[in-house]
Amino acid sequence: MHVYGISNCSTVKKALAWLDEHGLSYTFHDFKKTGTTPTQLAAWAEQVGWEKLLNRQGMTWRQLPDSVKAVITTAPAAFALMSDKTSCIKRPVLEYRGRVLVGFNLAEYTALTGD
Predict the structure, then answer these.
(1) Active-site residue 9, yes or no?
(2) What is the pLDDT of residue 38?
């Protein structure tokens, strides 16, 4: 199981705490330290869609100029932005048994892990 996110993100902290409480082992990848690639983002988007990966509610997105936001209308444009500004990736991203979950949803985590 791989979890991707930013270590100081409250949603990531909730997800990791839940995994710990359920005794599930994982590898954590901090976007701020290890980054990500358009290829990795595209693989996730195949399952969840690029729109779900793009964090339009965070401070980083809100601080972008409207002219930048206006051109994020395609997957390649979104991947370029998310690769450059990893805070624009919705967190956490969990990879487990060939599936991808974005964000922390208790019901989804329970269904995926069987806990």
Answers:
(1) yes
(2) 86
